[in-house]
Write a structure and sequence with these properties.
alpha/beta; D-Maltodextrin-Binding Protein, domain 2; six-stranded mixed sheet; disordered N terminus; signal; periplasm; TRAP-type C4-dicarboxylate transport system, substrate-binding protein; TRAP_DctP_sf
Length: 323
């Protein structure tokens, strides 16, 4: 009997059979966010399908640190999985910043198709240099502008402190509008907005509603001026240690869930917009023309920064909301 048990253990090691293990997954968004909800459901399916061999523990709200630290932890193998914004990647490689360009796409479904295209395929090829294994692309809601005071024109944004991520593309947009981009961690935004430390923020409808930012707003510019892409990734170092059969299950579930996130936001956008329109806070629809020449100037600037940007513009132009 002892010989049989020892033989079975040795065979498991030789064949690379997986052992049960806990894995950690980080994201900067709070538990109420769709990314966190999706990650919870996905982790449950992965645990079931791997018969407990892969148990993913979730750490939302930036519990494991800002994304600069998250990326470092993934590179060393100290952290296993993450839903990453483009902030830290774009700060290291301009090509990752182009997906945040203003007025690439008009809506969530079109953005989802763009994230399945040639540009993201090219970005996937760059991920090993960051120590990452790409597992899918998704997004959150389209970008809007929430302000303490009403404005009538884009020129009135001049001098206003607008909360952004510490993210080169966002900083460039608001600098071009002569505003004062003000990077700030998400947990600090509510108090800063309520007390007037910032005059506004670039954010989506989901965050505006779920975090009650509208309670201190004088107006909401329903601009839909950009998508907010997300990369689902694994630590390349830790990925190599996972058994091939479990890798296949994980990859399949991440691909399915990132696609589901895009589909979910297509409906959630309208729900959150309806909620906000019922608050009494003016929700004003604006378009690319409202922002004036700043958008074209931004595109020209990023054509010089990234050799992929011109192709992305062409790829986006080939898509229509009716496709």
């Amino acid at each position: 009997m002892k010989i049989s048990v020892l033989f079975g253990a040795a065979l498991a090691l030789l064949t690379g059979a997986a052992q049960a293990a806990d894995y950690r997954m980080s994201m900067i968004v709070p538990p109420s966010h769709q990314w966190a909800k999706s990650a919870t459901e996905m982790a449950g399916r992965i645990k079931d399908r791997t018969e407990g061999r892969v148990n993913i523990l979730l750490f939302p709200s930036g519990q494991l640190g800002p994304e600069a630290q998250i990326l470092q932890q993934m590179q060393t193998g100290a952290l296993d999985f993450a839903f990453l914004t483009m902030g830290e990647l774009a700060n290291r490689d301009n090509d990752f910043g182009i997906l945040a360009a203003p007025y690439l796409v008009p809506d969530i479904p079109t953005a989802g198709r763009l994230l399945e295209g040639q540009t993201t395929a090219a970005l996937d090829e760059k991920l090993p240099a960051f120590g990452l294994k790409g597992l899918g692309w998704a997004l959150s809601g389209m970008r809007q502008v929430v302000l303490r005071d009403k404005v009538g024109t884009a020129a009135e944004l001049s001098g206003k402190k607008i909360r952004t991520l510490p993210y080169a593309p966002e900083l460039a947009l608001w600098t071009g509008l002569k505003a004062v981009p003000t990077p700030m961690p998400l947990p600090a935004v509510y108090d800063a907005f309520a007390t007037g430390q910032i005059d506004g923020m670039q954010i989506d409808l989901e965050g505006t509603w779920n975090s009650n930012y509208y309670a201190n707003a004088g107006m909401i510019l329903n601009s839909d001026h950009g998508m907010f892409p997300m990369l689902a990734a694994a630590s390349g170092r830790k990925w190599a240690q996972i058994a091939p059969g479990d890798q296949a299950i994980i990859a399949e579930e991440f691909a399915a869930e990132t696609a589901h996130i895009v589909e979910a936001y297509a409906g959630l956008e309208q729900e959150f917009l309806a909620h906000l329109q019922g608050t009494g806070v003016p929700v004003v629809k604006v378009n690319r023309a409202w922002f004036g020449p700043a958008i074209e100037a931004y595109h020209d600037q990023w054509k010089a920064k990234s050799p992929l940007f011109e192709g992305l513009l062409q790829e986006a132009a080939s898509l229509t909301p009716q496709d």
